[in-house]
Amino acid sequence: MIEFRNVWFKYDEEGDFILRNINLTIKRGEVISILGDNGSGKTTLIKHMNGLLKPTKGDVYVDGENTRDKPISELSRKVAIVFQYPEKMFFSPSVEEELKATLKNFGLEGEELNNRLEEILEEFRLVDLRDRTPFSLSGGEQRRLSIAIALSWDPDYVILDEPTTGLDGYSRRDLTKTIEKVLAKNKTVVIVTHDLEYLFEFAPRVILLSRGAIVFQGSFKELLENEDVIMRNGLESPKISMLMKVVRRDGGGCGMRYSELLSVIIERLGCSEDV
Amino acid sequence: MYRISYKAFKFEAKDALLYRIDPRAKLFVALYSMTISIITFDLTTLILLTIYLMIYISLLGKILRKIMRNLLVLTPLIIIIFLANYLVTFNIITSLVPAVKLITLVLSMNIFFLTTSPDDFSLTLEKLGVPLTITLAFSLSLRFIIVLSKQLNEITEAQLSRGYTLDRGGLIQRIKNFIPILVPMIVLSIKRSIDIAETLEVRGFRTDVKHTPYHDLKTTRRDVVFTLSSIVSITIFYYPLQDILSLFIPL
Ligand SMILES: Nc1ncnc2c1ncn2[C@@H]1O[C@H](COP(=O)(O)OP(=O)(O)OP(=O)(O)O)[C@@H](O)[C@H]1O
Ligand SMILES: [Mg+2]
To answer: Which CATH superfamily is domain A2-235 in?
Structure first.
């Protein structure tokens, strides 16, 4: 569990508060999304989760331990953050070396390291890229590598800062599969995004930030029903939510995920699944 | 803390007179004030000048706090200068002179440096006849100090988030520890300079033709009044000047 208790934060003594009185609990095994317009403090918020930033006032607890009392190296073993610009962390001559360096950071050695390496390369479709330099990869491939790196040491919480920007269809589906796999292991996924459309994959709990304060907290469904909250906070109402409204209006009980919606529509139209 | 502050380098225009004055006028006043500081060897004068410059800067520029912070960084140097002189001369007064001089120099310099944006800075150089390629390089590098320190923060954060620690191992290992920070710094910097070169080219930037600045420097009556009154007021503090003059010109 990651817990924010009355967290206030500012970067400079003289500056304004960037986070204002954040109270938030993120449970084990849940998927949660942090939304908000540019500059609302999303990245600042997630940097508190592995101790990169410490609150100016208030406290953050990871599994009951105050982030002030733990070094970042220990916290990041549990909490992995994938930042917006992955190319900022590459430094090795090859993809393989890049992964190895991280595994070494977390104390893996010898056979254990090699096995884990192969596993990760396989899982993230990086086998063909293993000898390429990370800098020459495409943006999407770099993102994939950085997610692979973050998952390589098997953290309990995975935090993704705007993971879908610049990804093509393949990579988006890859990402979805990866997140589902992580969730299946009863781990936590935090997705920072502007992309409401993408959230239909998971229908997560959502936290909406505006100028550093939480202005909305609830289920994805509740958010979509609050059209003016969406409009007021620089988000775009997904086209598909209109469709959902129509389906639901005439009595179709359905959840918020694509798959659920799809099955209702298919049933309604009375056609078979393979249209 | 691993975080370095880039605020110290950041130019923030405040609502104060110094920010609106023609940078050439400010540069002139700053140079004049520096000259006065250099040729003054009287401790009382230097201290009075320090106090005056502090008042001058805080009233006209509202930058006293920032300068004080800069001076705080220089404290060790000031102390070393004092001690070194004291060990040679064994005279507190004469050893204080170079130390206080450094303070007045820093104060004088900042009349110009802290109140002039990188753009105005390079424009001033250009007006003084420095070639465009040099002024451009100059203003770009000034601007990129902030970008670079931001980048350094981001890289460090990314590495810390993947279990990297700086203070680990013996000497060799500790030097190696810098690689994950250094390599991305260099790669990203090279990438950025290619981007900038391309951008300049795409926008038709050329150095072989005379270029027209987007906003030009203009000297107004206010600038003239500012310059004259600053020069006069600083000179008043330099009253030993009269003593020197009286040596040459019998009154
Ligand atoms: N290192 C820093 N020093 C000072 N101010 C900062 C720093 N990083 C961010 N800020 C400021 O904090 C505020 C919140 O920034 P943050 O990056 O958390 O926003 P965000 O919600 O992630 O935005 P985006 O959607 O653009 O990624 C912004 O006003 C930003 O200028
Ligand atoms: Mg952000």
So the answer is: P-loop containing nucleotide triphosphate hydrolases (3.40.50.300)
